UniProtKB/TrEMBL annotation:
<feature type="signal peptide">
    <location>
        <begin position="1"/>
        <end position="23"/>
    </location>
</feature>
<keyword id="KW-0808">Transferase</keyword>
<keyword id="KW-0812">Transmembrane</keyword>
<dbReference type="GO" id="GO:0008175">
    <property type="term" value="F:tRNA methyltransferase activity"/>
</dbReference>
<dbReference type="InterPro" id="IPR056744">
    <property type="entry name" value="TRM5/TYW2-like_N"/>
</dbReference>
<dbReference type="InterPro" id="IPR029063">
    <property type="entry name" value="SAM-dependent_MTases_sf"/>
</dbReference>
<dbReference type="Pfam" id="PF02475">
    <property type="entry name" value="TRM5-TYW2_MTfase"/>
</dbReference>
<dbReference type="GO" id="GO:0005737">
    <property type="term" value="C:cytoplasm"/>
</dbReference>
<keyword id="KW-0732">Signal</keyword>
<dbReference type="GO" id="GO:0031591">
    <property type="term" value="P:wybutosine biosynthetic process"/>
</dbReference>
<keyword id="KW-0949">S-adenosyl-L-methionine</keyword>
<feature type="transmembrane region" description="Helical">
    <location>
        <begin position="122"/>
        <end position="139"/>
    </location>
</feature>
<dbReference type="GO" id="GO:0102522">
    <property type="term" value="F:tRNA 4-demethylwyosine alpha-amino-alpha-carboxypropyltransferase activity"/>
</dbReference>
<keyword id="KW-0489">Methyltransferase</keyword>
<keyword id="KW-0472">Membrane</keyword>
<dbReference type="Pfam" id="PF25133">
    <property type="entry name" value="TYW2_N_2"/>
</dbReference>
<keyword id="KW-1133">Transmembrane helix</keyword>
Length: 281
């Protein structure tokens, strides 16, 4: 029996590998079949593996590229291209998996954002990607309007497709380029900063995007588990100082800390919900 996100026996080999399904592509781990011997018989091997896991296409995961746009390095082993349609929580994500990353591990956070009531809110997503959080905000949380900032042209292409495919393009404004220059100012009720390991370079941009009354920042980060308290203190103090430097008299505090997943041993991907509001007199 082969199931998504479970250990499955492949062929008749004496080991197990963990694989994941992305649309009609089965994605093998980055370390799978790396011996050159496998490539030498790949023309015969890959179709057999694909058939054994009931897949039309087969790929091998790659490391996230060490670039500003964090490109995918997924390798197609069987198939003509990397474009895939992937459904998650009744939302369609269409993208080229060889160029754009897709994380299964942050599903809980996408569900959390989608469960919010944003019907009267304007949302700014500073790191929109292919629409990881943009689509939950629009499709599930019913946001009034989302400004989606993204500088990776491959992700922008996918994002344009996805807002059309999910029938929410009329409530989404895509701003291509560096969010520090493209993000709107003074309009947002809520700002999403879904970049890891750190989005600190855009904290000032996020504060500037909020309305004068304040609002909510969702700040993602990778944090050593023993340093969560010091990190949240640093976040609230830094955002507060930035707000004061921009002329705001706000009370800034961490309303909630969401622990999304383990990123590495002792390092968590967390999200700080930072509330900014007029200081009580």
């Amino acid at each position: 029996m082969y199931r998504r996100n479970t250990w499955g026996r492949t062929l008749t080999l004496d080991f197990f590998i963990l694989w994941e399904r992305l649309g009609d592509i089965v994605v093998l781990p980055v370390t799978s079949f790396k011996n050159p011997l496998w490539d030498s018989i790949g023309e015969d091997l890959w179709p057999v593996i694909a058939k054994s896991v009931n897949a039309l296409r087969l790929a091998r995961q790659g490391r996230v590229a060490d670039t500003a746009t964090r490109d995918s390095t997924l390798e197609i082993l069987l198939g003509d291209n990397g474009w895939v349609d992937h459904r998650e929580n009744r939302i369609l994500y269409s993208f080229d998996a060889t160029k754009c990353m897709f994380s299964w591990g942050n599903l809980s956070e996408k569900l959390r954002m989608g469960s919010l009531d944003c019907r009267d809110e304007i949302v700014v997503d500073l790191f929109a990607g292919i629409g990881y959080f943009v689509l939950p905000f629009l499709v599930r949380a019913k946001a009034k309007l989302v400004y989606a900032c993204e500088w990776n042209p491959h992700a922008v292409e996918a994002l344009r497709r996805n807002v059309q495919a999910n029938s929410v393009s009329d409530r989404c404004i895509i701003l291509e380029g560096d969010n520090r220059t493209t993000a709107p100012k003074g309009v947002a009720d809520r700002v999403c900063l879904g970049l890891i390991p750190s989005s600190e370079s855009s904290w000032a941009t996020a504060v500037g995007a909020l309305r004068s009354e304040g609002g909510m920042l969702h700040i993602h980060g990778n944090v050593v588990d023993s340093e969560e308290s010091s990190w949240t203190k640093y976040v609230s103090e830094s955002v507060g100082e930035t707000a004061r430097s921009q002329g705001h008299c706000w009370e800034v505090f961490i309303e909630h800390l969401e622990r999304v997943k383990w990123y590495a041993p002792h390092i968590r991907h967390v999200v700080a919900d930072v509330r900014c509001r007029h200081a009580q007199k």
